[in-house]
Structure formats: structure tokens, C-alpha cells
Design a protein that fits this description.
about 325 residues; alpha/beta; Rossmann fold; Dihydrodipicolinate Reductase, domain 2; 2 domains; six-stranded mixed β-sheet; five-stranded parallel β-sheet; 10 helices; globular
Length: about 325
Amino acid sequence: MRIAIVGATGLVGSEILNVLSEFQIKFSELILVASERSVGKTLSFENKSYVISSMTEAIAKKPDIAIFSAGGSISLEWAPKFTEVGTTVIDNSSAWRMSPDHKLIVPEINAHLLTDEDKIIANPNCSTIQMVLSLAPLHKKYGIKRVVVSTYQSISGTGVKAIQQLENEKNNVEGDMAYPYPINENCLPHCDVFLENGYTKEEMKLTNETKKIIDDSIDVTATAVRVPVSGGHSEAVNVEFLNDFDLTQVRAMLNNTDGITLKDNPDTNTYPMPLYAKGKNDVFVGRIRRDESQDNTLNMWIVADNLRKGAATNAVQIAQYIIENKLVIA
């Protein structure tokens, strides 16, 4: 089993390596790929040094699986070239997510849809993954009509430049700006670029990807906000169901869902926080309560490490699934 990591030196790439190790994914060869300026340098993983390869060098090695985390334009150009040599690509960018010819996978929800013919598999957006994992079991039971979500998203979702901006601002240091305004002691209602409808791309990803993963009939409206947190996305989610629900049953269903940890006890101030979720693979759900302003409606608070389940963990879980189900044959 030859596994390539494209974008191995980035924030998500580093987490992919951590998760590969934690999940004990077996491989005969690990191929680390990064930008041209990093080619030839070494990167340490599990007490072994690996020389960083170029794209063409990696393709020549014909990896069985390539996990991409290098941006949409890179994926559009290079993922098909990997598939030409038989590689199955798991892509973290938005390049293939809404393509009708490619599957958008959260393993706990829809990995069963994958076949050995799926050579490019899309990993959903980080904020989408944690939300749909929490919504999917509830939709099966009660039927979801509409979702209103407000996100509070970590700066790590923007990348290293944003983390450096926050550190610079905390220390009164002049430096490059990842955002149009300061992020320290501030909140920016601006994740990704604005579209003609007034929403940002991040907000529309929550709408469109939820429909593709769970059910096209679900209406979703979103407001995405960037907050000065270094790791972990939080979401306030209001869910209107077609049918009434029982709160005890809702808690039990979420508690029994793979990949979800329930933290929901106001009496002991037990609720999800990015501080707790950072570095963990689960999605954390709490503050579960009825919306008393209208029937059949639930409020909940969802938190996950955006670099883990929101990206690296989900991608490695897809790889694990296709290996275990022999959808790739080394």
C-alpha cells in the first residue's frame, strides 16, 4: 500500500500524518509531496526522514491512495493525472465537492456509496462535516425541514498566515494581514469571498454540501463568522423538523452516533468548547434544547477541531474505509 500526501507541509497535511499514525494505517511506502520550494527537503514522520517529492515524482511512484490538501487549483490540475496511473484521490479542497460525477463523503454517513470506480473522492468543507454528522441521525428519525446555522470559525481554517496575524496583533508586531481587519479581540462576519447573493462561499458550502450529503430537500441558511480562536470551529444550529421530537431520544441518538461525543449538562457547565475539542477527532454536541418560539424546532451547539474531523481525520477515515473494503488493491 503506497500512500501519498499532497500538501504534506501544510497545517492539514501535518494533521493527516498525525492521524495516519494514530489510526495505525499500514503502508509499504509513504510519499510526501509539497510545493516546488520544498522539494528535496526532508520531513520527519514516526522517527523516519522522508524526502519531499514533486508532483511528477509522486505520480511516477504510482501511489494506491493520494490524499490532497493543497488547494482547489492544484487538485483540478493534478488529481486527474494521479488517477491515470491508478491512484485513488481523496481531495480536501472544494474542487470536486459539487461535481455530480464525484461523491462527497462523511464516512459515518455515506461511505457505503463508494465503489472501486470512485477514483476522486471529495472531502466536505470543515464546517459542513461537523454539522451534517450531527444532523444525519436526526433527519432519519424526524425529517429535517430547515436549518439555520451561525458559525464561529477558527483562524486555522484560513491557514498559517492568519495564525501569524493573530500572534502579531497580540504582541503588537507589524506584519502581513490574512484578513482585511484585525482579528485579535474582533469577529469578522466574512469567511471566504462574497458572492453576488450577499452570502460568502463558506456560507453557501454549508447549504449546498448539506443538500448533497443528506437530502436535497433540506433548506439551509448560514452566517459564517471568523473568531480569534486558534483551533476549532463552533456552530449554533437551529433545526426545524417535519415531525415532533423527544429531547431524551435526541440526546440518546446523538450519544450513540459514531464520531459524536455528547457534552450536554447545564447543571455542571458541561458543553462543547474549541478548547476541549482541539486535537481530538470527534464532533462534540451540547446545549440541546427546544426552540420555544416555534413547533418541532431544536437548538444545539456543535464544536469540532476543523483540522481534524473537519479535514484530516475525515480524509484518513475515507482512506481507511476504502482499504478495509478493498476498494483499492495494492
